[in-house]
């Protein structure tokens, strides 16, 4: 009975929040417009976005929308190439670290508040949680609307922990030291080859996960004034040494050359017990392995800290914003903002079907958010989270960080040597940024 | 005076000549000459990929910065190691396969096709297949461990700095050996049968025919193939790119083309990327000149 009532409440909440019909773009007349929309791959999201686009095109027969997806590690390169050749799409999204260069080089149009039915920037800001639009604010205007804000926590396979003699409720990993020691208990190898990993890192998200490890120990990626890179050698060396211990050059517990841990985790095939991911992973798990999703064999726990952490820092959150190409035709820009507004007005459905969070006040207070498994864990961690580094050299710094960690972890490079090289290259990148 | 007078027929023929080469000249100017000149111009400017501002002239700053960069010289080293590492197995392998195939009476086409088939796969598909093979639990470890009797050893095909270079070389050799086998096969086919028959009448055995007739007459093809292997291996990119995307350390396999790509797209610094491109262009130019010379030598011998 309780379940039925909860489902009814959810259904009513979704229906009440969804506008009945897609908006009509004003002043279009008989003009024909083509809008190209480029976004990163997410099969669950593509389904609902294509539906919103079809509704939008039905309401605006003169507008054609081409929806294209790219792998998340390629979209930045695809966009950069397209924009350099003056062929950028009308609407695009890219992670905030990479979006900065588009905004700062005048490639992004400011939000068209009127097209969204708002009076101005203050109205828009009031819709979101505090600070959520700061990364796209320039001189009082906003240059993007948040599609998703992601912070990461630790997914734990309870069954695998129990089988290794670990009580998942009491002895789940709380520190980085725990992660290594528990992994050592769970890992299985055939000789040197790992056949079961206790924990493996998320190697495409160093700025989200590794930088907080350094910050917990008092180190910094870039100084507050944005002028100095790599601060606090002791913190950096300890975090790099931890990565080395995890990898094949250390205790051989994981490596970036194995299948991505989050993908293997969802399969529940006894190959990975713990992995980092965002709330969205729940939707992927639900789609790829509903039995596991509906079981009680998994849980989500907070981001680990060091035993001797100097301050509590949780995983940095990354953000994706839908943006509009400033070089496209003015009418196309207006139509694009109307479309973006229409798509993002379905925040509850994005959460329900894709498990991605648009940081609106309305969504965070909604029953659907509160009913998501472990959303409270993500929300609590979010209170201590910072946004990933967003600066003029953020894309370059992110590349340098990946190189450094991979050289230490799999290349066997001494952390001290790697840190010196990183410091030099990162400082050069900051100094040469416009 | 008679000598200065031009032949109208020749003049007419020359005009047609220009007409026929015009599309080629336009194509070359638009897609080769213009980018080369633009790269030279860009190498002296502070040009950022996404910037809408006009680039500033900065003299030799990009050149000094690139040529004094450790990262750049590491890329030169990575490219050189790759070229040399690829050259020996591709050259010897394709020559050996061509000799074996040409010695067969039946099934020549089949063997050529079988060897050539990897060359028609896209580099991305090739690298993706080999990523699975080089996975720690993949075929490469299983095969080598069975061969060496070392069960459970992880040879770190994608992790160890030396092994990852070997892995990229292996992929390239597998993909390219068939192509050069066909080139050598064509060279062997061009050797006049009368010369071979004469040597047989004179009592030369197979080894003598190979070392005294086939290999000396194949010398122009060998020169051509050598230069072609160097040129194409210098342009390698996708295997290194995909391996790095899947966790392989960058430094050992950061070949020049990959460094250019990353400098232009990730760092958005077109000026520095242009300097590296011009450096690569110069090496390719020298190799192409050698290739033309080798081709000319072949024609003279024929």
Q: Which shape of chain B, going by the Cα principal axes? A: flat
Q: What is the chains' assembly state? A: heterodimer
The structural domain count of chain A equals 2
How much of the sequence lies in strands of chain B comes to under 5%
The helix-strand sequence of chain B is HEEHHHHHHHHHHHH
User: Helical proportion of chain B?
Assistant: over 70%
User: Strand arrangement, largest sheet of chain B?
Assistant: 1-2
First CA to last CA of chain A: what distance?
61 Å
Largest sheet of chain A: 5 strands, mixed
| Biggest sheet details of chain B | 2 strands, antiparallel
What structural class should be given to the helix and strand makeup of chain B? mainly alpha
CATH architecture of chain B: Orthogonal Bundle
Gyration radius of chain A (Cα, Å) is 22 Å
Q: Helix count of chain B? A: 13
The CATH topology of the largest domain in chain A, please?
Answer: D-Maltodextrin-Binding Protein, domain 2
Estimate what percentage of residues of chain A fall within beta strands.
15-25%
CATH C-level category of chain B: Mainly Alpha
Structural class of chain A: alpha+beta
Low-confidence residue ranges of chain B: none
CATH superfamily of the largest domain in chain A: Periplasmic binding protein-like II
Rg on CA atoms of chain B, Å: 24 Å
Task: Walk me through the structure.
The complex is a heterodimer of chains A (434) and B (302). In chain A, the strands form four sheets. Chain A has a five-stranded mixed sheet with strand order 2-1-3-14-6. In chain A, strands 8-9-12-7-13 form a five-stranded mixed sheet. A two-stranded antiparallel sheet of chain A has the order 4-5. Residues 5-18 of chain A have low confidence and may be disordered. The termini of chain A are far apart. With 434 residues, chain A is an alpha+beta fold. Chain A has helices at residues 2-17, 43-59, 75-84, 96-104, 121-127, 158-163, 176-186, 206-216, 233-246, 261-267, 280-288, 290-294, 330-344, 347-354, 361-364, 367-371, 375-382, 394-409, 415-432; strands spanning 33-40, 63-70, 91-95, 137-138, 141-142, 145-150, 153-157, 188-190, 193-200, 220-222, 229-231, 272-277, 298-301, 318-324. Chain B has 302 residues and is mostly helical. Chain B has a single domain (57-301), classed as MetI-like fold (Orthogonal Bundle). Chain B contains 13 helices and two strands, in the order αββαααααααααααα. Chain B has helices at 8-42, 61-67, 70-103, 108-120, 123-134, 139-148, 161-189, 193-201, 206-217, 219-234, 238-245, 256-266, 270-301, and strands at residues 45-46, 56-57. Chain B has a two-stranded antiparallel ribbon with strand order 1-2. The mean pLDDT of chain B is 89. Chain A binds chain B through residues 73, 76-77, 80-81, 83-84, 101-102, 105-107, 189-195, 203, 248, 255-259, 395-396, 399, 402-403, 406-407, 410-412, 425, 429, 432, 434, and chain B through 48-52, 71, 134-137, 141, 151-154, 156, 158-161, 245-252, 262, 265-269.
